[in-house]
Structures are given as structure tokens and as C-alpha cells.
């Protein structure tokens, strides 16, 4: 119990930890609002206000986050020209998303012209969706490389030169790291696909992507995948 509490404290000390928690509030309240809208209008309005408040809070809390992309490219530009290219495109899309999200937030709270909200939402969502596409491609390439490396390691037969006790422990540890990395990247892919669906609802509104259930489930998949990735090990 104490270990769980300690991990929760560490999780909530992170910017992303708080964001995933508030995102959970936002999309749970969206689903509840949809569910009780016709049967309990008063309760539905309460959950609608909670949803809107959570969404605006997340935007305020993400102020300045577009600079994260610059720092990521500076620290880890990519190991190969292909990954550097994908990293630039992915982080550029994310930077556009977070930068214009500032103006979307200011327009929705009435600080600047409210008429700008639709345009800012489109630009932000367009950059966001492009970023997700390249993040997903990068993750799938790394997952594929990890599977190939895992197969090579598994083909090493007991008794071969590489299977003395120390080498075998090293091999098992490498396999463990490959599997753990694959799980994390699959969680990232799940979150990016879910957020991509949410972005499409802003870019090209339609009955499916804009339905409360589609948005609610996508938001929770994104939130809980991010929760898993950020939870202290």
C-alpha cells in the first residue's frame, strides 16, 4: 500500500502525470454527460461543466510545452538519417499543436477574439495529427527492429560460445529490455492513434469521429496508455 502511494506521489509530481489524470476526468465526464443527457439533464450539465473545465485546465497547464520538441531534437535527434527525419517531422507537428493550442485556450476563455477558436483548433489539430503519424511510423520501425533482434538472440543455442553463465544472463537481460520497450511503444502507438482520432474530429467533423462515445473512449485510451507509460516502475 505504501509503495503504491509513493508511486502515486511521484506520478502526480510529473507534468504528464497530472495531465493524464485530468484527461481522465475530462473524458469520463464526457461519457457520463452523454449517458444521462436525456434522463437527468441537471446532472448532465454538471458533468458537461466538469468536462469543459478539465479541458481548459489542461490547455493552461500545457503552457510552454511546445518548447519540449526543441529540447527533444537537441538531446536526441535520432540515431540514423531516417530517424532524424522522422523525429523532425513528428516533433514539428507536435510543436505546432502545442503552440496554437495556446491561442485556442485564450480564445475559448474570451481573452482574445472568440471567433479565432475554430481556426486555431483546426491548425492545432492538423499539426497534432501530422505529428502523430510520424511518431507512429517511428515506433513501428523500432518495434520491428526489436522483434528482429529478439529472434537473433533466441536463435542462440545453449552450449554455444555466447551461452556461458555471464553471457546468458546478459542475453536474458537484453531480451527483457526488448520486450519492455515493445510494450511501452505499443502503449505509445495506442495513445497516438486515439489522439489522432480526436484530432480528426476537429479537422473533418463527422458523426462518427465527433460522437461522444468515440471521443470518450479515444480520450480514455490515450489517458490510460499515457498513465501506464508514466507510472513509476
Automatic annotation (TrEMBL):
A molecular-function term among this protein's GO annotations: identical protein binding
PANTHER family given in the database record: PEROXISOMAL BIOGENESIS FACTOR 11, PEROXISOMAL MEMBRANE PROTEIN 11B
GO biological process: peroxisome fission; regulation of peroxisome size
Family to which the UniProt record says this protein belongs: Belongs to the peroxin-11 family.
Gene Ontology CC annotations of this record: peroxisomal membrane
Keywords, alphabetical: Membrane, Peroxisome, Peroxisome biogenesis, Transmembrane, Transmembrane helix
Superkingdom of source: Eukaryota
Keyword Cell wall biogenesis/degradation: no
Bilayer topology annotation: Multi-pass membrane protein
Subcellular location(s) of the protein: Peroxisome membrane
Protein name as annotated: Peroxisomal membrane protein 11B
Bilayer-crossing regions: 83-100, 120-143, 183-203, 209-228
Keyword Transmembrane helix recorded: yes
Coiled coil: none
Organism whose genome encodes this protein: Protea cynaroides
Amino acid at each position: 500500500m505504501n509503495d503504491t502511494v509513493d508511486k502515486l506521489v511521484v506520478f502526480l509530481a510529473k507534468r504528464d502525470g497530472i495531465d493524464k489524470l485530468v484527461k481522465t476526468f475530462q473524458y469520463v465526464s464526457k461519457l457520463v454527460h452523454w449517458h444521462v443527457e436525456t434522463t437527468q439533464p441537471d446532472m448532465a450539465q454538471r458533468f458537461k461543466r466538469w468536462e469543459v473545465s478539465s479541458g481548459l485546465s489542461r490547455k493552461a497547464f500545457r503552457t510552454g510545452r511546445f518548447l519540449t520538441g526543441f529540447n527533444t531534437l537537441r538531446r536526441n535527434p535520432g540515431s540514423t538519417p531516417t530517424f532524424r527525419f522522422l523525429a523532425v517531422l513528428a516533433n514539428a507537428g507536435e510543436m505546432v499543436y502545442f503552440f496554437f493550442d495556446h491561442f485556442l485556450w485564450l480564445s475559448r476563455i474570451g481573452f482574445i477574439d472568440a471567433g479565432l477558436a475554430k481556426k486555431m483548433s483546426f491548425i492545432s489539430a492538423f499539426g497534432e495529427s501530422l505529428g502523430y503519424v510520424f511518431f507512429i511510423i517511428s515506433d513501428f520501425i523500432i518495434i520491428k527492429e526489436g522483434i528482429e533482434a529478439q529472434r537473433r538472440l533466441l536463435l542462440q543455442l545453449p552450449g554455444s560460445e555466447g551461452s556461458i553463465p555471464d553471457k546468458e544472463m546478459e542475453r536474458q537481460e537484453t531480451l527483457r529490455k526488448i520486450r519492455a520497450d515493445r510494450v511501452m511503444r505499443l502503449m505509445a502507438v495506442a495513445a497516438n492513434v486515439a489522439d489522432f482520432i480526436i484530432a480528426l474530429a476537429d479537422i473533418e467533423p463527422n458523426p462518427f469521429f465527433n460522437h461522444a462515445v468515440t471521443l470518450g473512449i479515444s480520450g480514455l485510451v490515450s489517458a490510460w496508455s499515457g498513465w501506464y507509460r508514466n507510472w513509476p516502475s
